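Troubleshooting log. The previous structure file for this entry was overwritten by mistake, so regenerating from the original sequence record. Sequence copied from the archived sheet and checked twice against the printout by T.R.
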Amino acid sequence: MMRITLEYFAQLRDLAGCTREERDIDAISLGTLYEQVRRDYQFPLERDQLRVAVNDAFASWDEAPHEGDMVVFIPPVTGG
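Regenerated output below.
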């Protein structure tokens, strides 16, 4: 188990009901992590519709998070 921080923006923040949360997770890929969070909060977006960043740098969905990481799921920008 490791503890990471998740940060949400826009639509994901609204659905999660928070901007940031800490979670204890098993060592998994960022893609698997998103799918777990998506189920928890009923996020409508598939992961291919998002970007993921770890510690302020874009990351691959196949990468594994590490203890203390800040993981951000970034939805597409909308509006005008």
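The longest strand covers residues 2-8. Archived copy saved in two places this time.
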